[in-house]
Amino acid sequence: MSQLELRDVVKHYSSGPEAVRAVDGVSLTIDEGELIALFGPSGSGKTTLLLLAAGLDVPDSGSIHFGDRDIGAMDELESARWRRREVGFVLQAFHLMSHSSALDNAMIKLPADGLTLREARARTTGWLERVGLGSRIQYAANQLSTGERQRVAIARALVSEPGLLLADEPTGNLDSERTHEILALLRDVCHERRIPGLLVTHDAEAVGFVDRVLTLRDGRLVEGLPAKPGAVRA
Ligand SMILES: Nc1ncnc2c1ncn2[C@@H]1O[C@H](COP(=O)(O)OP(=O)(O)OP(=O)(O)O)[C@@H](O)[C@H]1O
Ligand SMILES: [Mg+2]
User: Fold this and answer.
1) Using one digit for the tens of pLDDT, what is the confidence trace for 153-184?
2) Per-residue confidence at 1, pLDDT binned at 50, 70, 90?
3) Could you give the C-alpha distances from 209 to 36, 77, 104, 221, 234, in angstroms and in order?
């Protein structure tokens, strides 16, 4: 198992007239078995930070290590292999194949080697059951509600039993009962498997399920919840 370590990470975007410092000097260590909730207003850099941690984008300066691996220094192929093996990423937009079943969508992240199809199906079915979709396994994604699709995306991130969990508003479309179940599941996965987890959320209830709470403001990290009352729901 490995920890995730970001040191002085900076990421600018310069598509408009002025450069945006989306991530502005972030240093953060997430320990093995630690789940962090990351709050922050819309546009504060949360998704950018997750993409950097997943190696899907490269910092302008600073470093990101997962254990002894330098994420920013990998070439594309190495980075893709590392992601497939180690990273469970719940994306803010779920990107499911709309005509494929919940099972096929969730199974897609399993490495092709190592498991028979029967084993892959059994493992994926187990994760779909854990996110409460045991009765929807054969439904096509376009026959599922938004919250159900979100839960398929969560199962997809967990089937490969990743070494790092990154989740971008994974409970954004769920009612409070499902939100509790999913937050408890993500916490249990991090604690039981001793993996670091970074959970981007607007949901104040997440505070009760995580080990540490941080807030991003204009690309900079501060401890705790947003200062202004009500600022949790940006
Ligand atoms: N590919 C890009 N090109 C240019 N600017 C970008 C790009 N991606 C993000 N940004 C800018 O970087 C800033 C941070 O964006 P980011 O998506 O990380 O915010 P966020 O905190 O995830 O917001 P939300 O809560 O709305 O998802 C924003 O000002 C955004 O406009
Ligand atoms: Mg975002």
Assistant:
1) 999 999 999 999 999 999 998 999 999 999 99
2) confident
3) 9, 35, 30, 20, 20
SS3 198: strand
Residues 121 and 103 sit within 8 Å (Cβ to Cβ)? yes
**Residues 136/169, Cβ–Cβ less than 8 Å:** no
**15 CA to middle of ligand 2, Å?**
17
Closest atom of ligand 1 to 16 CA is: 4
- Domain-located, residue 231: no
- Among the listed residues 55, 54, 57, the one whose alpha carbon sits nearest the alpha carbon of residue 22: 57
Structurally, how many domains does the chain consist of? 1
pLDDT at 234: 43
Position 228 scores a pLDDT of 61
Ligand 1 pocket at CB < 6 A: 13, 15, 20, 22, 40, 42-48, 92
Give the domain extent around 194: 4-226
CATH, residue 141: 3.40.50.300
